[in-house]
Structure prediction request, 138 residues.
Amino acid sequence: MPTPWQTRCAALAIALMWGYEGLWCKIFPGRADQRAIVEGLPLLPEGAAAVLLVAIGLAELALGVWVLSGRLPRLAALVQTALVAGFNTGGLLVGADHIPEPGRLVVQDLVFLALIWTVAAARPTPAARPAHPATVAA
Prediction:
């Protein structure tokens, strides 16, 4: 079982990954390959890719903050798993020609998800946390 310090460091690494993906890859300056994948989405109106990329980027930033908060860690891990699986499955189906090494992407995502679930499992659930002294009846 990781120590609390190790868990915080791992959570910081996860949050940094979401921050990098959200801020740098989607919002500013944005990566051309990710933009091309989103532009290739079927039924996406022309010009909507930029707005969608910013929305995804903001959601990824928010996810990083959620991970750092430590609140509802298993739900956070579930949401992260769904997003990683959904984004990358969509990317591989719609924009595989913009992903230079799909196998590497899948392996990196599996490692990232293992870290996400390790952090979630190491964090106490609300029922396992000690009661706040002010809420304990005397």
Observations:
- Helices lie at 4-27, 32-39, 48-69, 73-94, 102-122.
